[in-house]
């Protein structure tokens, strides 16, 4: 019986990633995702996003209000919790992981840690966020960056590993306002 339940939960995850997250109509896609992750008002998960969540707990991945998660992203809730604040813009191809492997372990033990992305953060294309990272309010992550450590608020970071390359001077008093009626893959 336990194996049947696990199979059905795995099938649900497969169907979400292969069918629901490919639907080109954001309103329908977001409606079908309601039981799988916590998503705030006016937030949009574009098509072709991959959601990883082996525990099947709805609150493992939490997305705030007015957020955009573009296509090709991976949101990992297999390890720790993934908490995304309000007005966060995640560009295409960003990978966010909450679980990794211990490089010092002979058997490749897994390490699970929370990832926290605070309000008004912009993560540019192809960035990778590793387990245990907190990205401070108003920060910008440059394209292709690999974030291995915490990012202070209003910092601009880039590189591999990501290092501070500037400070964000703009006001953080804005609201993302992007919600297409049709999202082509």
UniProtKB/TrEMBL annotation:
Keywords: Acyltransferase, Repeat, Transferase. CDD domains: LbH_MAT_like (cd04647). The keyword Transferase applies. One of its GO terms (cellular component) is cytosol. This is Acyltransferase. One of its GO terms (molecular function) is O-acyltransferase activity. The keyword Metal-binding does not apply. Transmembrane segments: none annotated. Belongs to the transferase hexapeptide repeat family. The lineage of its organism: Bacteria, Pseudomonadati, Bacteroidota, Flavobacteriia, Flavobacteriales. It holds the Pfam family Hexapep.
């Amino acid at each position: 019986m336990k194996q049947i339940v696990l199979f059905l939960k795995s099938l649900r995850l497969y169907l979400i990633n292969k069918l629901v997250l490919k639907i080109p109509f954001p309103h329908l896609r977001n409606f079908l995702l309601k039981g799988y992750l916590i998503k705030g008002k006016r937030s949009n998960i574009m098509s072709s996003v991959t959601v990883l969540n082996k525990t099947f707990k709805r609150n493992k991945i939490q997305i705030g209000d007015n957020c955009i998660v573009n296509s090709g992203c991976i949101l990992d809730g297999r390890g720790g919790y993934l908490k995304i604040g309000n007005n966060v813009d995640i560009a295409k191809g960003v990978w966010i992981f909450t679980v990794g492997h211990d490089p010092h372990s002979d058997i490749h033990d897994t390490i699970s840690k929370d990832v926290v992305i605070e309000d008004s953060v912009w993560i540019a294309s192809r960035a990778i966020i590793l387990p245990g990272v907190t990205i401070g309010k108003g920060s910008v992550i440059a394209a292709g960056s690999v974030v291995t450590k915490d990012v202070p608020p209003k910092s601009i970071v880039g590189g591999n590993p990501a290092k501070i390359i500037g400070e964000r001077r703009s006001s953080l008093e804005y609201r993302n306002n992007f919600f297409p009626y049709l999202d082509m893959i």
